[in-house]
Amino acid sequence: MATHQQSPSVPAPGDSYVQSFARGLQVIRSFSAGAPRQTLSEVAAATGLTRAGARRILLTLQTLGYVTSDGKLFALTPRILDLGFAYLSSMPIWNRAEPVMEALVQQVQESCSAAVLDATDIVYVLRVPTHKIMRISLGVGSRLPAFCTSMGRLLLADLDEDERRARLEASPREAFTKHTVTDVGALLAKVAQARRQGWCLVNQELEEGLISIAAPIVDRAGRTVAALNISGQANRTSAKVMQDSMLPALLAAAREISRLL
Prior knowledge:
Layout: H1 19-29, E1 37-39, H2 40-47, H3 51-64, E2 67-69, E3 73-76, H4 81-89, H5 93-108, E4 111-118, E5 121-128, E6 143-145, H6 150-156, H7 161-170, H8 184-197, E7 200-203, E8 210-218, E9 224-233, H9 239-260
Antiparallel strand pairs: 1-3, 2-3, 4-5, 4-9, 5-6, 7-8, 8-9
Protein name: IclR family transcriptional regulator
InterPro entries: GAF-like_dom_sf (IPR029016), HTH_MetabolicPath_Reg (IPR050707), PcaR_PcaU (IPR012794), Tscrpt_reg_IclR_C (IPR014757), Tscrpt_reg_IclR_N (IPR005471), WH-like_DNA-bd_sf (IPR036388), WH_DNA-bd_sf (IPR036390)
Keywords: DNA-binding, Transcription, Transcription regulation
């Protein structure tokens, strides 16, 4: 999957920036589905740290119980989930949103997810699957590029024009399929369309055969704080069918979750 960059809006390090803490987070993020177990040298190369710096951080994380090692290879432990759970437990809305999403899945018989925007990516905060419809394995905490996903474009649509452009320009914009739109100008037009119509459909841009449609979850002030989507296979559900028969139910579910805010 594409590499992830820091948000253009994040300020440069200053007096309030704790560099050692930032490096610790870099080390944690270096582990992934593609690199679940790494040597000290691999962690150092992935983070740009010296071997000595990477070793100090890994041993600190090991002492705290977030990392384990067999003497050569390092890996994250289940305790690392505590960090993500702290976010989810501080947002009780997702506990209340889950029944709404489960009801939607029962109604449309397609997978449903909720995500928030983080820099140039979306991060999944809740997912109710039906069938496995993607090669990519998704769960809470999974990240996907915002530029080529229905939830990502809808979340970008809530930003001001300069911020939208900055985030799109900072995105790697890899062409995942022959349908993927990568031109910044064309993407800005699609994001603007999503803003006007209040929903977004993406047809096979992230993965061949995958279609998704998203609706906004808004707070009391009308700001989009998350997005809700339905995903399906093109050979089972066409884009037109998804828009005509599933969009009304999706919009109603998004309104219900927004009301819970």
